[in-house]
Amino acid sequence: MTMISANGRVEVDPAPAPNLDVAAALFHGLSDPSRLMILRHLTTGEHRVRDLTDHLGLAQSTVSAHLACLRDCGLVVSRPEGRASMFSLTSAPHLLGLLEAAEQLLADSGHAVALCPNYGIGTEGLPAPEELRSHTKGTGA
C-alpha cells in the first residue's frame, strides 16, 4: 500500500500488492458513461429497467446490456417483482465513496484526464502498452 507520511513523502508499504488485474477490471467495468449514469441513479434506490430507460433517456437494450455487465462485475443485483426485475446496488456506501473520491481526484487534477492522449475524451479503445502515446509533445517524455 502507498501512503503519504507526515512530512509529505510517499512511502510504499512492503506488504504484497493487491491483485491489480482485478482492480483494473473493476475500473474497466466503471469506464462507460452510461454505466456510471445507471449506478448514480441506483444510488437513489431500486429501479426496474423501464424506470431507468424513462429517467435516463437510454434505450431499453442499452440499459439491459449495461445492467448485465454491472451484475457480472458484482456491482448490482436484481430481484424479481412480478414480471419485472428490480435492480439495486450491492454496496451503495462503498460505491458512493469511490465516486466521490473520483470526483475529488478529477477536481484536484483539473480534469486533465480528459486531455490524455491514451484515454481522454475522444480516444478509441484501450491501447496496448507499446502503443501508449506521450503526454508531452516533442520531448519524448
Could you characterize what this model shows?
Strand 3 and strand 4 form a beta hairpin. The protein has helices at residues 20-29, 33-42, 49-56, 60-72, 92-108, and strands at residues 2-4, 10-12, 76-81, 84-89. The two termini are 27 Å apart. It is of the alpha+beta class and 141 residues long. Helices cover 41% and strands 13% of the residues. The protein contains five helices and four strands; from the N terminus they run ββααααββα. The strands form two sheets. The chain has a two-stranded antiparallel ribbon. A two-stranded antiparallel ribbon has the order 3-4. Helix 3 (49-56) packs across helix 4 (60-72). The mean pLDDT is 86.
The average pLDDT score comes to 86
Beta content comes to 5-15%
The portion of residues assigned to helices is 40-55%
Query: Can you summarize the main beta sheet?
Result: 2 strands, antiparallel
Shape: globular
Cα-based radius of gyration, to the nearest Å: 19 Å
N-to-C SSE series? Answer: EEHHHHEEH
Structural class: alpha+beta
**Major beta sheet, strand line-up:** 1-2
Question: Total strand count, please?
Answer: 4
Low-confidence stretches at least 5 residues in length (pLDDT < 50)? none
User: How many helical elements?
Assistant: 5
Distance between the termini: 27 Å
